[in-house]
Write a structure and sequence with these properties.
Two copies of one chain form a homodimer. Chain A has 580 residues and is an alpha/beta fold. Chain A has helices at 25-35, 40-49, 99-120, 133-138, 151-163, 183-195, 206-223, 238-253, 257-260, 279-286, 307-319, 342-352, 409-414, 447-480, 506-509, 514-535, 563-577; strands at 231-235, 268-273, 294-297, 323-330, 355-360, 384-387, 400-404, 486-488, 499-503, 541-545, 548-554. Helices cover 39% and strands 10% of the residues of chain A. Chains A, B: Belongs to the group II decarboxylase family.
Chain lengths: 580, 580
């Protein structure tokens, strides 16, 4: 391993990768030094050269200061003069006179983070330096012990952690619905950590509680609820937001369930499309409703719920004496990116008096785009909506909102009025103590990053970012729809940024035995994906669906991605898959 | 307001406060400049002088560079040369050549944070600059608009947010069970935000998944489970951890509940002490069990569950044909800090075949102390335990663990096997994909800050920190137990750091009419608390309990607190309450 002992930047695991030129740590350092003015170049360079040092038997591999070829002198590549090797966490604040040591230590960490950030956006670096779990366990000492480590060791641990982390900001990281790293969002998250407080009362989070109020109101206005009225909360992810919605729907219909439980109510049934997210069933299991009471409605070939099937199943359930209480329509399904027909669904919900929830965890953000928001037409008729700004709006994880049309319902559904937290004789307006409407007691501050990004971009900035991602996905669709060796999983332009396709390597493409062909094709995507990870060049997801064998699901929510990155992805799939 | 337009450091709302000398922003600036070498003094000073500027009608209040009296020259108090007023978020990465602008912007944010941190630990600053909600809404423009703001505006928003934030790191902030700010924990949280990934699969969070594995195992070893075997997860807070435990207990006894819901099982009942946390009832409401099926067991005068009452109520429930499925013992109650007798409880649970959960959200961390861990004797017999390192171990929010003795149960209880996330044909050991055992889909990375702090302190460092907090609470107890004007809510040395007491101002102390006395006493704590917040000098919680009127509940988890801070609290209560 040529880059042993260095922050890994090159092709440690695989040599040349098509379309990009892997660089050595030293070359990257030289480029960085030239790129930046002032001390930043040498700082970056220094960081790269004192990256995690793997212990070799003879200890000879430790990088020396003279190994650096910075153009900026004096070069501070050797950090031995900082003295962290003799300092411990007990030397930091609140230790007496800990101020300077603390600031220097935190600055050191920030320097590591800044270098990581700049590196993450650089296409010549790897998305991931992949190792199998057992291997990764052995590459570093991750154990916890009785004795403290020095601050120097702590900095080494930080570098090691980042060395093996996924670069989720990387322009070629497409693996999940949440990708990218927004710089204002990141700054806001750093501030949130520093403020280190809890959303449950105004008393301990005055600004954040107000910002949540302002932001939820704005989101409800965008949904189209009159004057932005209603309620809502930021919860730990879309699955929990969906669970909240189901809980509210049940309570709205049978408020006695709170005290008396499910044994006091008739058999409840919920409805959602067969393409919906697994959290609907998971929520039903947790809430004591049971997964069998979630009835899966047929979806069309594009993955959209078929309203006539919904109505048929509701009628059927009623005939059996069950009580339909909840329909979860999906705005942006996980795999196909399909938008259920909300207007037709809302008509049915109204007719049968069923709570209409819209799971817009993935697609809800399209409401920010004047060009694409029609896909959610009818959402204003919903009783509740899940909307995850941490997905399509690229807010750092986690940031998921549940919006509710009826005011006061969350409070009465969830409140327990613990007098040791929600004292009723405080000096301020108690409606700002939002904690009792939550399922949680303590609640993490997820609002500030969204609020600050919104200030920085404006609504039009989010719109531009979203429109661009959709444009990229259309570009990808147009590029591959008639390209040799590709087959689309469904016909037609994608509604969201999901592009689902098979790549058929030459060896599979012309097979006549259909069973054999499907068997071979099923293994293509996993193999290419594993190779992508080993080379570290890009990451994209795949899965089977129903009777369809493994296919790629490309999703684009990373604001760093460009047309060239889409081209790269296709080239990479072909390069890594041509022999299969 | 003399300090109008300045980062507020002084006594804007109340003049002199007993025991501390409020300083003006300028004086603090001068002190800071002398304290630090290099550019840090002038940096700090600069930050203090360009704090949020309130817009006055004539615009005359804007602070000028010349208003600073730094000893370090040249002084960079005027930041106009940085050009952020012409830059937008779109100029930052991933913008072409956005590297330098990004690093400069993030560094600027970090400078603001570093100044806030140093200020937070300074006893001469306020814990809170309190404003009523409507007033706070008007003190700044918090609205979201269509158009973007400049990066300069974003920095101003950051300063404004911190100006009105609670300084949870402040040595005199005692308001919640989670207080203080650990510098290594903070560094780790900044790194976590930068890595911006999701715990659901090894694929996207390799290091963090391994660190969770290592840390949970260590915690299980400390509980006393053989070889650290078992399972667990980090969840969004103690309430959710407790809900997980209840869910597992129900599934263990009646696995069919997952598919068929509560209508398939007999009437389940849970048991917990009348002093337990409200999340037990909240969880029962959510899970469809109902709050009435949570039977509250009597506690003794110290707040500990009475085992004989537990057994009596279990027998009673069985006689009624109900099925006892869950006992939640509390290790460290919220108000009294009481530890339920775990050994006696475990005997009863064993006898009646009921799942034993220990809610150690608050007191679980005492397991880290050789001196205090006996209070949890018997925890090793529990089936599950909630343990929140974000409380007594001062890990930044949020960090809550649920530990489970039986392996594999979480997976079978919660899994939905979504093939688009947990593909079964990946190249690595799939047991590292932990997402399907969670209630959530995406899951925030809460592990790194705990792991890094553990490395930095060692187990003995956490032990020392915890022992010190308990020593402080004993000091407080000894100080006030015989002091004139004080009455303890319960007798005897506190078991945890909770010290519950009434302060009786002279005007109340000698009242003979007992009803009138209680009526007046009930208002004392809220009034003193409101005054504390207006002066911003300290914060401590209060509440009524049962038939007891409002009393103070002092808790100490803040590693920055000292004996002098305890003295200060008592002086402050007397200063603010003497006229009542």
């Amino acid at each position: 391993m040529a880059s042993h002992g260095f922050w890994s930047l090159g092709a440690e695991n695989g040599g040349e990768s098509g379309g990009q030129s892997p660089v050595t740590a030293r070359a990257w350092c030289q480029a960085a030094a030239q790129k930046f003015t002032g001390g930043i170049g040498s700082k970056l360079c220094a960081l790269l050269n004192v990256g995690e040092v793997e212990k070799s038997a003879d200890g000879a591999d430790k990088p020396e200061a003279e190994s650096c070829n910075c153009t900026t002198k004096p070069c501070n590549c050797s950090k031995s003069n900082l003295g962290f090797s003799e300092l411990y966490s007990t030397d930091l604040l609140p230790a007496l006179n800990g101020d300077l040591k603390t600031m220097t230590f935190l600055q050191e960490v920030v320097d590591i983070l800044l270098a990581y950030i700049v590196e993450s956006f650089d296409r010549s670096t790897k998305v991931i330096d992949f190792h199998y779990p057992n291997e990764l366990l052995q590459r570093n000492n991750w154990e916890l012990s009785d004795e403290p480590e020095t601050l120097d060791d702590i900095l080494i641990s930080c570098r090691a952690t980042l060395k093996y982390a996924i670069k989720t900001a990387h322009p070629r990281y497409f693996n999940q619905l949440s990708t990218g790293l927004d710089m204002v969002g990141l700054a806001a998250d750093w501030l949130t950590s520093t403020a280190n407080t809890n959303m449950f009362t105004y008393e301990v989070a005055p600004v954040f509680v107000l910002l949540e109020y302002v932001t939820l109101k704005k989101m409800r206005e965008i949904i189209g609820w009159e004057d932005g009225r209603g309620d809502g909360i930021f919860s730990p992810g879309g699955a929990i937001s969906n669970m909240y919605a189901m809980l509210l729907a049940r309570y709205k219909m049978f408020p006695e369930v709170k005290e008396k439980g499910m044994s006091s109510v008739p058999k409840l049934v919920a409805f959602t499309s067969e393409h919906s997210h697994f959290s609907i069933k998971k929520g039903a299991a947790a809430l004591g409703i049971g997964t069998e009471s979630v009835i899966c409605i047929k979806a069309d070939e594009r993955g959209k719920l078929i309203p006539s099937d919904l109505e048929r199943r509701i009628v059927e359930a009623k005939q059996k004496g069950y009580v339909p209480f909840f329909v979860s329509a999906t705005a942006g399904t996980t795999v196909y990116g399909a938008f259920d027909p909300l207007i037709a669904i809302s008509d049915i919900c109204k007719k049968y008096n069923v709570w209409m929830h819209v799971d817009g965890a993935w697609g809800g953000s399209l409401l920010m785009s004047r060009k694409h928001r029609w896909k959610l037409n009818g959402v204003e008729r919903a009783n509740s909506m899940t909307w995850n700004p941490h997905k399509m709006m690229a807010v750092p994880l986690q940031c998921s909102a549940l919006l509710v049309r009826e005011e006061g319902l969350m409070q009465s559904c969830n409140q327990m009025q613990a007098c040791y937290l929600f004292q009723q004789d405080k000096q301020y307006d108690l409606s700002y103590d939002t904690g009792d409407k939550a399922l949680q007691c303590g609640r993490h501050v997820d609002i500030f990053k969204l609020w600050l990004m919104w200030r920085a971009k404006g609504t039009i900035g989010f719109e531009a970012q979203i429109d661009k991602c959709l444009e990229l996905s259309e570009y990808l669709y147009n590029k591959i729809k008639d390209r040799e060796g590709y087959e689309m999983v469904f016909d037609g332009k994608p509604q969201h940024t999901n592009v689902c396709f098979w790549y058929l390597p030459p060896g599979v493409r012309y097979l006549e035995d259909k069973v054999e062909k499907m068997k071979r094709l099923h293994k293509v995507a996993p193999t290419i994906k594993a190779r992508m990870m080993e080379y570290g060049t890009t990451m994209v997801s795949y899965q089977p669906q129903g009777d369809k064998v493994n296919f790629f699901r490309m999703v684009i929510s990373n604001p760093a991605a460009t047309f060239e990155d889409i081209d790269f992805l296709i080239e990479e799939i072909e390069r890594l898959g041509q022999d299969l």
